[in-house]
Amino acid sequence: MRLVFTQAAWLFTFLNQNHHHHHRSGLGGGVVTSPFETQTNHDGHPTTMIAMRASSSKQTGPEESETILDAVIIGAGWAGLAAANLLVKRGVENIRILEAKGHIGGRAYTETHEWAGDEIPIDMGAMWLHGASKNILNKLALKYNVKTPLSTYDTIIYKPDGTSYDHEEVEEYREQLFDEGFFSVQADRQMTTDYDEPLQKSCDVFLDQLDTTQEEEKKKLTKFFLRSGIEMEYSGLLKDHSLWWWNDDYDLGGSIDTEDYFVPQGHNSLVLPFASWLQENDKIQLNAPVTCIDYQDKDVVHVHHYSGKGDETSSTICCRAKKVIVTVPLGVLKADRISFLPKLPKRTQKSIRRLGMGKMNKVFLLWSKEDVFWPRDTEVLGDLEERDSNFVFCNPRQHNGDLPLLFAFFQGSLADAAEEAFAHTHPEEYENRIRDLAMESLRSMFGNEIPMPKKVVVTKWNVDEYTMGAYSFNKVKMGKLDRYFLSQPIGKDQLFFAGEATHRRYFATTAGAFMTGRTAARKVLKSLQKQETPAS
């Protein structure tokens, strides 16, 4: 499931039943932060600069631990937790997870909010188990007795005149306009183009074929399907998606079964019990943002990190380890929020640069039960009107005990501007602006008389310094093997990378993050065993 974001782009499974697509919710991985001095890189992002050479930092820099750990894992999202769990199971307990935030879970994190006298779970990132029973995390749900009802994705799309398309009509038009229409056009272009190009060009070609007055409503439907089925599904804009590789992912389980389980209790119901041994045995250090990884010494890697909240008052510490697994989100790597000494290989840097990091957020809106105005048993609500910032709403009432809540995935420049201007400094203003944008969409569906929500919760993944985006997507001009190259060990088998961005087929999902964490742990185990085996 995808993150945020998030996680999961978490919406229209029905759009993708025949094309190996699946929903994403913002997903996992903890991260790093800015170090002692900051500049900006060529993308305008803050970049980490260590004001001393590694050799001198070992002598005069941060306090250095005398203990040499077998492994340090950076990030306590699903990738980091899965890696640590496997290492411990194989007898390697001399490990530490460094997590930048004050909680575990990364982009699979549940907040608890009080509402009508109850504590309700709100998933800020990942929300579904994509692929249902075929998802590797479903084993944990069964083990921990976590309820996972099947999402139906029953959908209503509202027209500007107040009428609507019901789910059967939506499915019929989806097949006609998306499966047989747009998808055929882009498939032909995939086969005939000599160079990769933005997926937007295929969209424009198909929409031009509908360029008549009689087809105007079909054009609006097509654009809705493209927004919800691609831009929100994969978290990147059509102009940024690669024609060749945008849908180069597989459904979980290797089939076209795209059923998804919803997790009403929140993903913490999976994350916390899975990480219980690690937490009980003090293997996870929270509020420990990493600033520099120095792997110049072929025997020991020096990991510099803050101890505390990560601000100027925090002390800096250097821990040492034989191996380091980096599970930070791609957005953090792209922004150079962590320094590597020596620099990462050019091939790795190129892969980081060419992969895309999507922008996506969610808003949760709660009303009093007597104020509910939307159909109870319809899971997905959308409208055809195009706006600067677009929202697609989900209604989980049939899964969450009839809680009067809607949540929506959204993208757009007005929403982005509000996030950048207010999310950190004036969070209430940020919530109000996103609420107003969301209500504009809801009023177009249900009329101007609907009541304002009583409570609003909004994510801010794009400006979160420990994620810097929702989840990864396949960007135009990327290389087919960029994710593979990003997953390869670096140095003398000292650095290992994991996380959703390193999985070629299950990128942008929590299952993908989990699997890459275990893969990295196996590589570490093999490398440690090789070091300990004397040469014959």
Strand percent estimate: 15-25%
In total, the number of strands is 23
| Weakly predicted, low-confidence segments | 1-60
How far is the first residue's CA from the last residue's CA? 47 Å
**How confident overall, as mean pLDDT?**
87
* Oligomeric composition of the shown chains: single chain
Q: Which structural category do the helix and sheet elements fall into?
A: alpha/beta
Shape: globular
Main beta sheet, described?
Answer: 8 strands, mixed
Name the helicity range: 25-40%
The total of helices stands at: 14
Rg result? 23 Å
What does this protein look like?
This protein is α/β, with parallel strands linked by helices and 536 residues long. It has helices at residues 54-60, 78-89, 138-143, 167-192, 200-209, 216-234, 268-274, 276-280, 330-334, 346-354, 413-422, 427-446, 482-486, 510-532; strands at 37-40, 46-49, 63-74, 95-98, 110-115, 118-123, 128-130, 155-158, 164-165, 260-262, 284-285, 290-294, 301-307, 315-326, 339-341, 356-357, 361-366, 380-383, 389-394, 405-412, 455-458, 472-473, 495-497. Strands 3, 4, 11, 12, 13, 14, 15 and 23 form an eight-stranded mixed sheet that branches. Strands 9-8-18-19-20-17-21 form a seven-stranded mixed sheet, sandwiched between helices. It has a two-stranded antiparallel ribbon with strand order 1-2. Strand 13 (301-307) and strand 14 (315-326) form a beta hairpin. Helix 4 (167-192) crosses helix 5 (200-209) and helix 4 (167-192) crosses helix 6 (216-234). The radius of gyration is 23 Å and the shape is globular. It starts with 36 loop residues before the first strand and ends with a helix. Mean pLDDT is 87; it is low at 1-60.
